[in-house]
């Protein structure tokens, strides 16, 4: 057996050990994360919410084309969701 073949096998074994070790580590982390139940219902937006987001879009993207206003709206919605 050549020296290069032995080094390659050792490297492959170490890589496998690292992959398995990290996999077990992430499984353990996943089990420790508490799950928070969803509160409230997802339904129709209230008229106050629609009015507020329209005012925010107007304030943030006044003078922008429609595509820019849609982009601002998506950023606002993503921030509210997170």
Protein architecture, described:
This protein is an all-alpha fold. It folds into two domains: 1-34; 44-82, no CATH class. The chain is built from three helices and no strands. Helix 2 packs across helix 3 (66-81). The longest helix has 30 residues, at 3-32. The mean pLDDT is 76.
Jot down its keywords:
single chain; 82 residues; 3 helices
Show the helix and strand layout:
Layout: H1 3-32, H2 47-61, H3 66-81
Helix pairs in contact: 2-3
Tally the beta strands. Answer: 0
Sheet-strand content, in percent, reads under 5%
Alpha carbon gap, first and last residue? 57 Å
Helicity, in percent? over 70%
Spans of at least 5 consecutive residues with low confidence: none
Instruction: Tell me the Rg in angstroms.
Output: 26 Å
Individual helix count? 3
Instruction: Give the rounded overall mean pLDDT.
Output: 76
Order of helices and strands: HHH
Number of domains: 2
Biggest sheet architecture: none
- Overall structural class, as computed from helix and strand content, comes to mainly alpha
3D shape: elongated
Give a concise summary.
By secondary structure, this protein is mostly helical. 74% of the residues lie in helices and 0% in strands. The protein has two domains: 1-34; 44-82, no CATH class.
């Amino acid at each position: 057996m050549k020296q290069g073949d032995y080094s390659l096998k050792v490297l492959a074994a170490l890589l496998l050990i690292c992959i398995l070790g990290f996999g077990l580590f992430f499984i353990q982390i996943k089990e420790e994360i508490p799950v928070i139940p969803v509160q409230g219902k997802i339904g129709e937006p209230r008229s106050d919410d629609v009015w507020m987001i329209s005012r925010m879009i107007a304030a943030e993207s006044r003078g922008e084309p429609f595509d820019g206003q849609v982009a601002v709206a998506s950023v606002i919605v993503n921030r509210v969701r997170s």
